[in-house]
Amino acid sequence: MEILYNRYKDKKIDVVAGIESRGFIIGAILANKLGVGFVPIRKKGKLPYEVVREEYSLEYGTDAIEMHKDSIKYGQKVLVVDDLIATGGTILAGCNLVKKLGGDIF
Questions:
Q1: The dihedral sign for the CA sequence 50, 38, 99, 45
Q2: For residue 86, what pLDDT is reported?
Q3: What order do you get walking across the sheet with 104-105 strand by strand?
């Protein structure tokens, strides 16, 4: 965590978005250390409010992730965190959600 904190502490990030589920752990701790908010990006159907959705490809089909429509403000710098990147599909979908809401990917 110290390595991640030191890498991003001077980058003026406004919010950290973590992809379900282990991205919640890393992202929330990093957001706390950076003194910024945390936004969960969840699997479809798990959030209680209005959402934006992004589908992505899996090896044998598709899936989708969602985030609340009001979770990112236009122009905010967002660091998207996932614990594992295999094909990059999930992190790309997360970045696309941030862009849909007007956020800037850091």
A1: negative
A2: 79
A3: 51-58, 61-68, 37-43, 15-19, 77-81, 104-105
DSSP string, 51-86: EEEEEEEETTEEEEEEEETTSS-TT-EEEEE-S--S
User: Mind telling me the catalytic residues?
Assistant: 22, 59
Q: How far apart are CA 95 and CA 106, in angstroms?
A: 10
Tokens 């967002």, located at residue: 78
Question: Contact, 65 vs 94, CB < 8 A?
Answer: yes
Report the alpha-carbon angle 52-9-53, nearest 5.
5
Exposure string for 42-52, b = 16+ CB within 10 A, e = fewer: beeeebeeebb
pTM of the model: 0.94
